[in-house]
Amino acid sequence: MSNRYQGIKEQAYEANMQLPALGLVLFTFGNVSVVDRGAGVFAIKPSGVPYKLLSPDSMVIVDFEGKTVEGTGRPSSDTKTHAVLYKHWEEIGGIVHTHSTYATAWAQAQRDIPIYGTTHADHLTADVPCAAPMSDEMIKGNYEHETGFQIMQCLQERNLSYKDVEMMLVGNHAPFTWGKTADKAVYNAAVLEEVARMAYLTESIRPECPKLKESLIKKHFERKHGPDAYYGQ
Amino acid sequence: MSNRYQGIKEQAYEANMQLPALGLVLFTFGNVSVVDRGAGVFAIKPSGVPYKLLSPDSMVIVDFEGKTVEGTGRPSSDTKTHAVLYKHWEEIGGIVHTHSTYATAWAQAQRDIPIYGTTHADHLTADVPCAAPMSDEMIKGNYEHETGFQIMQCLQERNLSYKDVEMMLVGNHAPFTWGKTADKAVYNAAVLEEVARMAYLTESIRPECPKLKESLIKKHFERKHGPDAYYGQ
Amino acid sequence: MSNRYQGIKEQAYEANMQLPALGLVLFTFGNVSVVDRGAGVFAIKPSGVPYKLLSPDSMVIVDFEGKTVEGTGRPSSDTKTHAVLYKHWEEIGGIVHTHSTYATAWAQAQRDIPIYGTTHADHLTADVPCAAPMSDEMIKGNYEHETGFQIMQCLQERNLSYKDVEMMLVGNHAPFTWGKTADKAVYNAAVLEEVARMAYLTESIRPECPKLKESLIKKHFERKHGPDAYYGQ
Amino acid sequence: MSNRYQGIKEQAYEANMQLPALGLVLFTFGNVSVVDRGAGVFAIKPSGVPYKLLSPDSMVIVDFEGKTVEGTGRPSSDTKTHAVLYKHWEEIGGIVHTHSTYATAWAQAQRDIPIYGTTHADHLTADVPCAAPMSDEMIKGNYEHETGFQIMQCLQERNLSYKDVEMMLVGNHAPFTWGKTADKAVYNAAVLEEVARMAYLTESIRPECPKLKESLIKKHFERKHGPDAYYGQ
Question: Which cofactor does it need (chains A, B, C, D) (predicted)?
C-alpha cells in the first residue's frame, strides 16, 4: 500500500478522534477531513465505522470530484459536501461536520446564532449564519453535492468570506466548520457548540436580549485577528 | 445448568451493560431483552439487580407468555410487556425500556416528538409517537401485559409499522425501543434520547417552530433505508 | 479510641462518599448520617472537610440533642436538623442533605414538585412537598434545630407520613431525604434529583401539563410498595 | 533561572489546573493568578497555552503595572485587568477569570444574578453584580486595563466591598472572581457557576420568583462569616 498519503491519513485520524473526546458526537454522527493541496486529494472518515474501530489506515483518500483514490472503506456520506468546499475554497485545510446538540438545535430552529458576547466575538464578528433549507429540486438532485453549494451561497448572500467566518449551520440539518488546518476546524466545532449553548441560555435568561454593541465586537475581533493581534487567554 | 440459552444470555448481558455506559439509566431504571425465535424464549435482566452485579448467568429466560423457563432471579417487572411484543412482532430481535431523562419528559408531557431535523429523519420519517395513557380498566388489570397492547394499538391508530418506527413513548411513563437485534434496540434508545433533547431545545429556541419539510424527510430516510441506501457517517 | 461506633462510622463514610459519585454535591455542599438506635447516637460527616479527605474515623458521633459524643472534628452544621428528625421519627435509619442542582432550584422556587409520571409514582404518590420558608422568629432562634421542626410540620400539614414520603424540599434552601437505611436515603436523594429534573423539563415541553391520573399513581405505588409488591426493573 | 518566585508559580500552576478539572473552561478560556505582596508581583498563566502543556515554570511573573518581570511566555491577555485589581485591592491573594457557561450567559444577558436561595446566601448577601458594558471610549483605549476599573466602579456604585463580594459578572463578557488566596478565588468561580445555573433554573420553574427574604439572607451570612461563625457542611 502506498505511503504517499500517510501524513493526511494520520492527521485525519487524530482529528476525527477528537470529536468524541470533546463530546461533539453520538455514535458515528460526525466526520473530519484533511486536504493535501499538492496532491489534490483529501483524507476522510470511512462511512458508518464506530470511532473506536478507526485507525489512520481506515481513512479514505478522495479527490475534489468526490471519487475514491485510495482506501477499502466507503468514504463518509458527506464526502461530496467536503469535496465541493475544498474545490472552491483554496485556503482551507480541514472540514468538520457534527450533529452536536446545541448547534443542531439552532439549525433545526432555522435561526442564526446572535452575537451576544465576547466569547462569540473572539471568534467571529457576525452572527453564526444558518443557511436556508434547500429547494426541493436541489434535494431531489445530488443532495450532498448541493449541500456544499448551499453553504457557499449562504455566505455569498450575506457578503461574508469563508476566511473570516469559519462556521455555519445548515438549516434543518446541523453544523459545518472549517479552518486552515483540521485541528482549527475541530476547535471551531467545539467553540460553535459552546457559543450555541450560551446563546440559548442567554435568551432564556433575558428574552429580547440586545446583541453585543459594535465597538465591543470590533475590539474583540481585532485583538485576536487584527494587524496588532495580541490575544490568547 | 443448561447451556442452551448461553448465546442470548450473553447478548442480553452485553446489551444491558450498554445502558449505564450510554448514560440512559439511573440505578436499575431500565432493561434489555434478546429473543431466540427458534426456542420461543427471550433473555431479560433480572428485577432490581444493580448493573454492576449483573452477569450473563443472571439473565432470566422467559417464554412469550411471560413464564420463567430458566433462571433463579425474578425477571424484570416489565417482562410481560416484552413478551407481548415478541409474540406479535415477529421480526424484532431485541427490546429496550429506559427512563432516560429527555424522552421521559416528553412522555410525561404526553406529546409526540415533532420531526424537526435530519438527525430525526435519518432514523424515522414520522414524529416519535406517544401512546395515550391507558384506560382505568386496563390499569387495574394486567398492567404490564396491557402496556404491550397500548404500544401496538398506538402504532395501529397512526397507521405505522413497527418495522419502520422502532421507538415509542408510553404516555406518563417512559420510552420503549426495539430493533432486529438488541444492539439496534439499544442504539435506538440512545438516538431517541438525543432526538428528544434536540427537539426540546429547538422549541425553546424557536416556539412554534415548523417541522421538517416533506422532501427533506423523504431524502434522508431513503439515503439510509431506501433501496439505494448509501448513508452512514 | 473506642470501637463501639465503628459500624455506623463506616456506613456513614461509605454513604457520604456516594454523594460526589452520584453527582449530587459540589465541594462540601451535603452530608449523610447513620443512626444507631440502641446507642441513641448517630454518625455524621464532619463540618467543612472535603470528601476526598474523609475517612471512617473522621465521622463524628452525636446524640439526639445534637451533642458530640465522640470525634475530634466539628459535626456538620446541619447536625441539629438530623438530631431532631432521629428523635421524632423512630423508624428511619439514615438522613441525607444535599444542594443538588434541580431539587434546589425547585426549593428556591418554593414549589412542590408535581407528580407528572411513573418515575415519580414508583417512589411516592404525592407531589414532593416543599416546606414554606421559616418565620422570622424561628430563623433568629436555633436555626438548624428549627429546620427539623419545619420539615415535620410540613408533612403534618399535608397529612403525610415520613414512612411514605421519604423526601422533601425546604423552601429557599435545598432537599432533605431519609430512609430505613442510609443507603436508601442516598438512593432517595438521587431519585429526587432526577424527578426534579424531569418535572422541570416536562413543564418546559408542555406548560400547564396535567398531573398523573389517580389510577396510575395507585398502580405504580402498589406494585412497588403494596402488599403484593412485585416491582423492580 | 531565579527561584525567587517558585512559590507563587507553583500555586498559580495548581490553581490554573483546577479550572478544567472543575469543568469551568473550554480550551484556554480562563486564567488564574497568585500575588506575592512582598515582591509586588503576581504569577499568571501564559497566553494561549493549552492546560495540559502548562507547568509551574511556564507561569509568567508580572508587576502591578502589567510589565513582565520573569518568564519566556507572553502573559495572559487579561493580565492588565489582574494588575489593576491587585494594585487597588490590597487584601486579595488570587484572581480567576473564566468563561464558564451559566455565569457567562448571565453576563451576556447583562443581568445581576438574583439571590434566590441559601446556596447563594452562604457566599454573598447581595445579588451577584453585573457591570454595565464599557463606554465606547474605554473600549477604544487600554481595554483590559479599563476592565479592571469597570469592575471596581461597579462595586463602588452599588456600595459593595471586594471583601464581602468576591465575584462579579462583566456585562457582555464573563465572570471574574477573587479571594484571599487563589484557591478561594477558584472555589468562588465554581460556586458562582453553580449559583448562576440554579438561578436560571429557578426562574424557568417560577417566573417572577421572589428573592430570599432579608432575615434568611442575614442568618446564612452570619453563620458562615459573622463573628460567631460556625458554618461548614
Answer: Zn(2+)
